[in-house]
Amino acid sequence: MTHSPLPVRVPLVLEPQGILESLRTARRNVLEIIPDIATKQPIVSGKTAIVKWHMVMDPKALRRVLLENLDNYPKSNVTKNILEPAIGDSLFVAEGAHWRWQRRAASPVFSHRNVQNLGPIMERAAERSVERVQQHLGRAMDLFDEMTKTTFDVISDVTFSGDDGIDQMAIHDAIDRYIEDIAKVSILDIIGVPTWVPRPGRITGSRGLKAMKKMADRAIEDRKTGGARDIPDLLDLLLDGEDPKTKRQMSTAELRDNLLTFIVAGHETTALTLSWALYLCAFDPQVQEKARLEAQSVLNGRTATAEDVPNLPYIRMIIDETLRLYPPAAFLSRTAQGTDQLCDRDIWKGDTVMLPVYALHRNELIWPEPDKFDPERFSDPKAIDRYAYLPFGNGPRVCIGAQFALQEAVMILASLLSKFKFTSIPGKDPQPIMILTLRPEGGVWLMVEEV
Ligand code: HEM
After folding, report:
1. CA–CA separation, 331 and 300 (whole Å)
2. Domain 16-450 coded CATH 1.10.630.10
3. Cβ(365)–Cβ(341) under 8 Å?
4. Which DSSP category does 357 fall into?
5. What pTM was estimated for this model as a whole?
6. Pairwise CA distance, residues 265 & 208, whole Å
7. Among 103, 264, 399, which residue has the most ligand 1 atoms within 8 Å of its CB, making it the best to mutate?
8. CB-based burial, 118-132: b 16+ in 10 Å, e otherwise
9. First to last CA, the chain
10. Is the Cβ atom of 151 under 6 angstroms away from ligand 1?
11. Ligand 1 pocket, 259 CB below 6 A?
12. Fewer beta carbons under 10 A from the terminal one: N or C of the chain?
């Protein structure tokens, strides 16, 4: 089969000036605001309505935003407006002291040891996925749909495992609907135009969300009286967690908001990683074959365990390169609290500072042949500037679930590749659409064969 030489990419706009006119249209796609020059320059600035914005693609400047001058760059209001109805003032959106104590209380939950202990849950989900894929031998299958099921299996099992009061399907539906709502976010929110400027389709807390919160509260109360399970899940660990400095523990509402945060932040992102990885493996059959040989020699016909992960370095390189080309969190955003300088450019209080991770990962000043799929780039991760590659952000607010997600992705990808061959279908390439996450529009349809 012939392939185009490069995997699919977001068609970036050559002229970003048309933004104001395009605001009249109800739903816009974020990809329309990232100009192509963001892949060629370290910083791009502009002004829209009354807001000045900057897109930063320079590793040194990113280090300043995410680490050295962190307090000057809290998460932007848009992030809060979108996420607060669902997850309250939890770890993902909180700032200052309220963020710090929650981070300290939640950090042990994601220790290497605890993440490894959750391995059997990921293993079972991988096994169930293998069984479902098996049903599609010789046929086409939407692997985005399949990976969404699989990662939901994991996240619902590690949050409310086996709780009677929890209707997992209802939670799944509520989250699906909420993520669909997020997809309607206006370009005005992203640029940071104040909320009094009217925009279409504002997100309101949906009824589904309210029902979901109630269910979660009930499960937490039950668990407080019922005790922990044999393998403690994230809820058990969080129930035990306390801020080592202040000894403060989370209330039921705080526990619930943080658990829902883990679901919202961890479920779709990991499904996207796996879906794009499978798309790329089908795109480059040689890479797929090399990965399969590694997986087969380590697994010998069984499903991957957490202990296998260090022995699957090539599968991990594929995941790393997938997260470069299709970072699920394609776009982070901050609001400057005071004056600063980034790349010799003046930043003023109130400016929106955007971190377009998609454009950073394809910036020609940083990456040779940036659009090319080449897992070998990650054969020596130390050679890569830590602020040039930001699929999980960086600094104190780096993703708390990164190790969890990487372990899960490596285990599931290795288990699938050891058993199945995935082939692309001409004319069925997914279209990458960047909203807040980078999604494969139309799904990832691949032919499935037994190996
Ligand atoms: C491949 C999968 C994932 C990706 C690409 C991803 C990406 C990110 C990114 C980029 C951030 C930083 C956002 C910012 O600085 O504005 C973040 C933060 C966060 N992520 Fe993830 N994430 C993933 C999986 C997970 C999982 C599995 C969990 C939990 C189970 C999780 C929980 C969180 C939380 C709680 C934060 C906020 C941390 C803080 O501010 O202290 N993520 N994630």
Report:
1. 39
2. yes
3. no
4. H
5. 0.93
6. 18
7. 399
8. bbebbbebbeebbee
9. 18
10. no
11. no
12. N
